[in-house]
Amino acid sequence: MTRGFVHSPSPTRVVFGAGTVAQAAEEVRRLGGSRVLLLARPRHGEKVAAALGDLVVARFDGARMHTPVEVTAQALDVLTSAAADCVVAVGGGSATGLAKALAARTGVPQVILPTTYSGSEVTPILGETENGQKTTRRSPDVLPETVIYDVDLTLDLPVPTTVTSSINAMAHAVEALYAPEANPVVDAIAVQAIRGITHSLPLIVADPSDVDARAELLESAWLAGSCLASVSMGLHHKLCHQLGGQFDLPHAETHTVMLPQVMAYKEKESPEALAKVAEALDVPDAAAAVFDLVTELGGPTSLRELGLPESSLDGIEPASVLHAAWAGTRPDGAPTLSALTAQVLASFDN
Ligand code: NAD
């Protein structure tokens, strides 16, 4: 059957490399900015502040996960009273989310320097939380004008966050493969992102300062974010947003637990898409392989270990996925190696 599609490439300018933080001032000026509000925690903020010099007129370091509207209101006050005409954010998806929330309210241009693999910097999506409810909007108004990827900013990202943030990135690529808006460009980018993540991540867990692997992972995270930018959110992202907003669960960790379970569920509906993931991973069962990868790399596999009581899940569908995610069951139901060993040993007892 002929697959019809519309493809609209992103206008975001992307600068990628090592030491590219040095180009921050030039990129701000390119956007016509001369008064910068810098959104950053102290550690990376100093590096970027030094690169921006006297362009910086104000700083705000209160960005929080899931972009609570009360934090945005505080940052908006700082932006307005400093008469800033450009926002520069350095950090993970939380800092980026705050920059986007300011752009949504004022139209201020954004330059983002990512330090995690969330991919938010290349999407026109903003999720905001108010009274425990996360609402998501998609608008070109929140898409950052410029992204500066500097691999040096990612070298100190702790291994546990590196693992969960990478699986968050992988989720963007996996969901793109079964999205109704998928097209050949998105498919190719998604497969490349999945390959790059699975190749580089174990190398980084073995040696967190491996610059080449960090660069491959950062590049893959950009590709994965680009996938999410081109398609609508699927079941996995919707569930993670609901759980994150309602129970204030950590974003990347929630993605890490949910992804293999949703992949197993989607296998029945979209076998061709899951077959592409399996091919990219070079395994027969993609969902089980992602579960095993997370286990091997020490990531979380259950909502239970994120501290969520099972009763919180009542009424959220699909219940089978959520309860498997709560318990951390290996998705294909096949016994894991250790369970298998236990069974064999038990059979000797009989
Ligand atoms: P985050 O930005 O909260 O960062 C996680 C933790 O890592 C924080 O404590 C942060 O200070 C720390 N950190 C970040 N970079 C570091 C570094 N290089 N070294 C040491 N510590 C570092 O988490 P995240 O997972 O990057 O982003 C989550 C947020 O982004 C959520 O609000 C989520 O909704 C949003 N998000 C949005 C999109 C989108 O397209 N709109 C996509 C993905 C995530």
UniProtKB/TrEMBL annotation:
<comment type="similarity">
    <text>Belongs to the intradiol ring-cleavage dioxygenase family.</text>
</comment>
<feature type="domain" description="Fe-containing alcohol dehydrogenase-like C-terminal">
    <location>
        <begin position="162"/>
        <end position="316"/>
    </location>
</feature>
<keyword id="KW-0479">Metal-binding</keyword>
<keyword id="KW-0408">Iron</keyword>
<protein>
    <submittedName>
        <fullName>Maleylacetate reductase and hydroxyquinol 1,2-dioxygenase domain-containing protein</fullName>
    </submittedName>
</protein>
<feature type="domain" description="Alcohol dehydrogenase iron-type/glycerol dehydrogenase GldA">
    <location>
        <begin position="11"/>
        <end position="150"/>
    </location>
</feature>
<keyword id="KW-0560">Oxidoreductase</keyword>
<keyword id="KW-0223">Dioxygenase</keyword>
